[in-house]
UniProtKB/TrEMBL annotation:
Entries under Gene3D superfamilies matching the protein: MetI-like
Entry protein name: ABC transporter permease
Coiled coil segments of this chain: none
Chief location category: membrane
Membrane topology of this protein: Multi-pass membrane protein
PROSITE patterns: ABC_TM1
Length: 316
């Protein structure tokens, strides 16, 4: 089937000029995501936050591009020295280069944030879309179950989870403690993603395309995966983008309390925890890793705000 075209004919004083006639193809309508991407590219907030996040991802993947120093090389004679030409951010309490540790610490901090976000969105989306689609007693059961986790204070819940898996004197490996921190964050945060997905699913199942698919005999799994899920992802994506920065901050909070990542893992939270006894005498121990943390969290929050505005029809 050929695409319809429009013919434009120009008329002169002597009549119609056939050589001036030309065809114009109508512009194809853009979908939600294409329209949002076009809108995002025009937003300074998106461009600035994307540039910051791109640099951070380069830092995670290729830290050697930013520093040649060993983050674990300790020279005690340099302990707590301030910024200098040899060490731009100074040295920590064990004489390790703070700049090198901040660069290498991006890997663990951002990895925790990304994995915790994936776990939160995955659990919350599955539970939310099932409850929103089926409704009834199943929806009530899943909603009441999520409220149990939603009612737990985050720090208290994380303390209970992490102290349960780590007995006094137990020193877990780096991978194990990262998975424990990720699991505790996801276990306490998924009800928010569940509520967002549930609301979107309840609205989507009332749409004509879902009713038509049901009338044609489509299975619930096909309706959920092929018809509802693509149209319910936008609000969850916005939440995930903003929550990622919050989860990076949550890792730093848990590490500061001595419950999160620990040596030999290098992360911004671990660096902040190591500086708590020297804030007055050596403030650079705290300021630089905290600066990296604040900029990262702010970048993801800015990105989430830009994505939210681009996907919100009311902002058009």
């Amino acid at each position: 089937m050929t695409e319809p075209t429009a013919t434009v004919v120009t008329t002169t004083q002597s009549g119609t000029d056939p050589m001036a006639a030309h065809e114009i193809k109508p512009e194809k309508p853009r979908g939600l995501w294409a329209d949002a991407w076009r809108d995002l590219r025009r937003r300074p907030l998106f461009l600035i936050s994307s540039a910051i996040i791109f640099v951070l991802l380069l830092m995670v993947a290729f830290p050697q591009l930013f520093t040649s120093a060993d983050p674990n090389n300790a020279i005690l004679t340099n302990a707590r020295q301030g910024p200098s030409a040899d060490a731009w951010f100074g040295y920590d309490v064990q004489g390790r280069d703070i700049y090198a540790r901040a660069v290498y610490g991006a890997r663990a901090s951002i990895a925790v944030g990304v994995l915790a976000t994936l776990g939160t969105v995955l659990i919350g989306s599955v539970v939310g879309i099932i409850g929103g689609y089926y409704g009834g007693w199943l929806d009530n059961l899943l909603s009441r179950f999520s409220e149990i986790f939603l009612g737990l204070p985050f720090v208290l819940g994380a303390i209970v989870i992490l102290t349960t898996f780590n007995q006094p004197g137990d020193i877990p490996s780096g991978t194990r403690v990262i998975l424990q921190v990720v699991g505790s964050i996801a276990a306490l945060s998924w009800p928010i993603a569940m509520r967002i997905m549930r609301s979107a699913a309840i609205s989507a199942k009332q749409q004509d395309y879902v009713k038509a698919a049901r009338a044609l005999g489509a299975k619930p799994s096909r309706i959920i995966l092929r018809h509802m899920l693509p149209n319910c992802l936008a609000p969850v994506l916005v939440y995930a983008t903003i929550a990622l920065g919050g989860f990076i901050g949550a890792e730093a909070t848990l590490s500061y309390l001595g419950l999160g990542l620990k040596y030999p893992v290098v992360s911004w939270g671990v660096m902040i925890a190591d500086s708590r006894d020297y804030i007055e005498t050596a403030p650079h121990l705290l300021l630089f890793p905290a600066g990296f943390l604040v900029v990262t969290v702010l970048a993801f929050v800015m990105l989430g705000d830009a994505v939210r505005d681009a996907l919100d029809p009311k902002q058009k």
